[in-house]
Amino acid sequence: MRYVIAICAVAFFLIWDGLYNHGRYLDVTVREVSHIVRSVTGKG
């Protein structure tokens, strides 16, 4: 049940972000995660 709630919350956030913010938060999140991954792996 926890997984269902988590998946619904993520899906709701993605829909809300896409409709009202044109994906701005998702774009920032992806950029930050990729930056962190590059820092950890040393490929940056």
Describe the overall structure.
By secondary structure, this protein is an all-alpha fold. Helices cover 84% and strands 0% of the residues. The chain has two helices and no strands. The longest helix has 19 residues. The termini are far apart.
Helix fraction, binned, reads over 70%
Structural class: mainly alpha
Unreliable runs? none
- Total strands: the figure is 0
Silhouette: flat
What is the CA–CA distance across the termini?
Answer: 39 Å
- The multimeric state of the shown protein is single chain
**Radius of gyration, in angstroms, nearest whole number:** 14 Å
Tell me what portion of residues adopts beta-strand conformation: under 5%
* Count of DSSP H/I helices: 2
- The helix/strand order is HH
Main beta sheet? none
On the 0 to 100 scale, the average pLDDT is 90
Gist of the model:
By secondary structure, this protein is mostly helical. The protein is 84% helix and 0% strand.
